[in-house]
Design brief:
211 residues, Rossmann fold, five-stranded parallel β-sheet, three-stranded antiparallel β-sheet, 9 helices, binds adenosine monophosphate
């Protein structure tokens, strides 16, 4: 089964995707995580991508597509988190899947109001060592600034500051929202209300995937 997660930044795509990976054996492909990894390793691609990411802009399609193509070996259970984000990426994904004898089964749009997204993202903290994600309001670490799991240092992503978050939401509306119609027309789109606690949102997505 191949599932695309659509939704604005902060909708919970990563959190739900990680649970599906852990509990249900899905492989999760997150272009945001892949890019952050390139930035961390200071690869050529990472250096190119960082300037766009810090401003909350999309990284150019050709960079993303080269990066994703390498990962698109046929898989049984795949979650695409944060990709595609433009119509050009959606069309390229169709080709990539077709060329490897695969197709999309479902597109889940996780819907959350803007104010909630801003609130969630500005409170997000991430472990520098293991990548665990916390929220200062809904899921704070036991000890401030320290990861419960590995003792690593927690930090705020450069693109989680209020101004950049607002810009990312605008970029989402301009570049990614058109994909909602694209997938609706293909009969693949399902919408869930993501304005709830992570467990509830996970169960709503799980129900869609298993029904
Ligand atoms: P995310 O972790 O999915 O919110 O992604 C963080 C940032 O990485 C985005 O704001 C973009 O700058 C970049 N990014 C991630 N995925 C894509 C994509 N599919 N296309 C273009 N830029 C992307």
């Amino acid at each position: 089964m191949k599932v695309v997660f659509l939704g604005p930044p902060g909708a919970g795509k990563g959190t739900v995707g990680e649970r599906l990976e852990k509990d249900m054996g899905f492989k999760r492909l997150s272009t945001g995580d892949m890019l952050r990894n390139h930035v961390k390793m200071a690869t050529e691609l990472g250096l190119k991508a960082k300037a766009y990411m810090d401003k909350g802009e999309l990284v150019p399609d050709d960079v993303i597509l080269d990066m994703v193509a390498e990962e698109m070996k046929p898989k049984e259970k795949l979650i695409l988190d944060g990709f595609p984000r433009t119509l050009a990426q959606a069309q390229a994904l169709d080709h990539l899947l077709k060329n490897t004898g695969q197709s999309l089964d479902l597109v889940v749009l996780i819907d959350v109001p803007d104010q909630v997204l801003i609130h969630r993202l500005t409170a997000r903290r991430v472990c520098r060592s293991c990548g665990a994600v916390y929220n200062l309001i809904t899921m704070p670490p036991k000890k401030p600034g320290v990861c419960d799991l590995c003792g690593g240092e927690l930090y705020q992503r450069d693109d989680d500051t209020e101004d950049t978050v607002k810009h990312r939401i605008e970029v989402y509306k301009r570049s990614t929202q058109p994909l909602v119609d694209h997938y609706k027309q293909k009969g693949l789109l399902r919408v869930i209300d993501g304005n709830a606690d992570p467990e509830t949102v996970f169960n709503r997505v799980k129900e869609l995937i298993t029904s």
